[in-house]
Amino acid sequence: MSATPARTRTGGFGIGFRRGWSDWQKDLAAVTAFAVKNNFAAVDVGGDGDTAGPGVQSAGLTVGSVDLKDWGGMLSPDKAKRTAAVEKNAAYVKACAALGAVNYFVVMLPEKPDLPRKENFAAMVESFTALAPVME
What we know:
By secondary structure, this protein is mostly helical. The chain has helices spanning 23-26, 28-37, 49-58, 71-74, 79-97, 117-135, and strands spanning 16-18, 42-44, 62-63, 65-67, 103-105.
């Protein structure tokens, strides 16, 4: 089965949607069947890209965005936690990239939002600088 993306006003770009958390969207086979039936081209799989990605691909769809695994750890004031989060996310990105994923979703929520913004921002910059080579 292969999805044929609907033609859009902006060209032949495929349209996708983000898989949510409602009961029917937890059933990957139902989600991909819906996507194919309705001419979607991609599914944003959320936080299980490494396990859901093959099912999305086998339906003839593209893996859209994938959520990184450890958002909070990337902005921890604890250097060891940041390092562990970068390593965990790096391994996950490599697994998802093997499935064709190129877009990763993250919300930068600091572990300790009461710290000065400058400190939380510095942790974010450090973490993403360390993750950048894997993302490339």
